[in-house]
Specification:
With 269 residues, the chain is an alpha/beta fold. The protein has a single domain, classed as Spore Coat Polysaccharide Biosynthesis Protein SpsA, Chain A, CATH 3.90.550.10. The chain is built from 9 helices and 10 strands. The chain has helices at 32-41, 61-68, 81-92, 112-121, 143-152, 161-165, 193-205, 215-225, 248-260, and strands at 5-10, 48-54, 72-76, 96-101, 126-129, 139-142, 173-177, 237-239, 245-247, 263-266. The radius of gyration is 17 Å and the shape is globular. The termini are far apart. The model has no long low-confidence stretch (mean pLDDT 95).
């Protein structure tokens, strides 16, 4: 049987700080969600793209988006992200699943082929990019490992999947480092109106087809133009499961520990 890789875009219309954010335009041609879909469809390693949303009536519009963009859709638990992904894995008989969060339009699709290759070649459970801006990496994992993870964690906190799967003490993890420098203090995720403005500034600053923009080009635009709302402020707090928080510095140190215990592939010259 041929191996199969399926990308799961985790997206809903609910958002407290920026309602309907995945449906908002980030360029003249694309909404945030459709921008992500079209970029993922260009990736060779992906066999199928699913929008993974909820069965709530407010997410009905996702059906139209999936049909218009010729991708599949799964509607499941509003809260349990893992349930949705595992259901897609079972429906498609995928051996590799990919988690792409709907508020990360600049997920670095140019590295996905390498992520999948590293996972397969080293027989890993989980692969991500490191030292990249927040919101830049897809998470690539085996369905078998995701099943194991679902048995270890409370489903009510499955939006924090990374904290459980990117744990070399429990899973065989791999990381790809695209930059010599550490750009993890930059953010390109979209949570607020200010983030949306920053995203539009990036797509408008790029002179070519915005679907082709690379992570290196995004970082260069942010640094060269000193775009606002692009940096994690020192002393900031990172949200954890069950309403807890941790200082950004402590979170970064824990990430470095996980990276040091993972299989690493460097991509810079």
């Amino acid at each position: 049987m041929m191996a199969k890789t399926v990308a799961c875009i985790i997206a809903r219309t609910v958002s407290t700080r920026l309602p309907l954010k995945v449906l908002r335009n980030i360029s003249d041609q694309y909404t945030m969600l459709e921008f992500m879909i079209q970029r993922l469809k260009k990736t060779r390693a992906i066999d199928e793209v699913f929008i993974c949303t909820s069965y709530e009536p407010m997410d009905e519009i996702m059906e139209d988006i999936a049909k218009r963009n010729n991708v599949s859709i799964y509607r499941g638990s509003p809260e349990n992200v893992i349930e949705r992904m595992l259901a897609v894995g079972e429906l498609t008989n995928a051996d590799i699943l990919m988690r792409i969060t709907g508020d990360n339009p600049f997920t670095s699709t140019e590295y996905i082929d390498k992520q999948v290759a590293l996972l397969r070649e080293k027989e890993l459970d989980y692969v991500r990019l490191v030292d990249v801006p927040i919101g830049a990496t897809a998470e690539v994992m085996t369905r078998k490992a995701l099943i194991k993870c679902s048995e270890l964690m409370d489903p009510s906190v499955s939006e924090y999947l990374m904290l459980f799967m990117f744990e070399p003490m429990n899973f065989k993890c791999g990381v790809i480092k695209p930059f010599e420098e550490d750009h993890s203090s930059i953010t390109i995720t979209v949570d607020t109106p200010e983030d949306l403005i920053r995203t539009k500034l990036i797509t408008s600053a790029y002179e070519g087809d915005p679907l082709e923009i690379t992570l290196q080009q995004i970082v260069k635009i942010i640094i060269d133009k000193e775009l606002p709302h692009s940096r994690i402020k020192g002393g900031g707090q990172i949200k954890l499961p069950f309403g807890k928080t941790v200082a950004f510095e402590d979170f970064s140190n824990d990430m470095k520990r996980r990276v040091s215990q993972s299989e690493m592939l460097t991509m810079y010259a």
